[in-house]
């Protein structure tokens, strides 16, 4: 699902909201999620999962085109851990 499909589905489920209002709600949700993660926080959505960040150490990498060794700096990367309900839905038979 892409962002426009999400907006359309939310607009269909909430006919009392204008499309601009639905878009504003989605924008606020993602901005707050990104802001919280950038501060080193964690965002938990019960039944869905939890978003957090993990630290990656600096390392030596290799440019695949030239084979040259390059320094890759340390960085934080986003991490998602699905909740129990999400795992159960994904593994239904």
UniProtKB/TrEMBL annotation:
One of its GO terms (cellular component) is cytosol. Keywords: DNA-binding. Residues 82-93 have a biased composition (Basic and acidic residues). One of its GO terms (molecular function) is DNA binding. Gene3D superfamilies: IHF-like DNA-binding proteins. The keyword Thylakoid does not apply. Residues 54-93 are annotated as: Disordered. The keyword DNA-binding applies. Belongs to the bacterial histone-like protein family. This is Integration host factor subunit beta. It comes from Qipengyuania aquimaris.
């Amino acid at each position: 699902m892409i962002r426009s499909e999400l907006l359309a589905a939310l607009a269909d489920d909430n006919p009392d909201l204008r499309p601009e209002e639905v878009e504003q709600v989605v924008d606020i949700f993602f901005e707050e999620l990104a802001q919280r993660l950038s501060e080193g926080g964690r965002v938990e959505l019960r039944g869905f999962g939890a978003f957090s960040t993990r630290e990656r150490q600096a390392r030596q990498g290799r440019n695949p085109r030239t084979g040259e060794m390059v320094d890759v700096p340390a960085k934080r990367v986003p991490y998602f851990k699905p909740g129990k309900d999400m795992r159960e839905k994904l593994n239904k038979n």
